[in-house]
Amino acid sequence: MEDVILRLKKISGQVQGLIKMIEREEECEKVITQFQAAKAALDNTFSLVLNRNLKHCLSNQDAERVEKILKLISKK
């Protein structure tokens, strides 16, 4: 999970950068571009963690945990 932690630290840096951009009232296009980059990075990291967890549950034939994960990701 070290790679996930590294990804999350990078995302945290992106969010801190966004805060500074908004505080400095930078151009809207730049702010939106950075938001999209941070969101994409978070989505990709989420997919990685989800994939690993589902594979782990399936390899252990843990249907109950798989069901819990599916319920969590289907909430909107």
CATH superfamily: Metal-sensitive repressor, helix protomer
Oligomer: single chain
Q: What gyration radius follows from the Cα positions, in whole Å? A: 16 Å
Number of discrete helical segments: 3
Largest sheet: none
**What share of residues is helical?**
over 70%
Short synopsis of the structure:
The protein is mainly alpha-helical. 87% of the residues lie in helices and 0% in strands.
Task: Characterise this structure.
87% of the residues lie in helices and 0% in strands. With 76 residues, the protein is mainly alpha-helical. The longest helix is centred in the middle third of the chain and has 32 residues, at 28-59. The radius of gyration is 16 Å and the shape is elongated. The two termini are 26 Å apart. The model has no long low-confidence stretch (mean pLDDT 89).
List the defining traits of the structure above.
single chain; 76 residues; mainly alpha; Methane Monooxygenase Hydroxylase, Chain G, domain 1
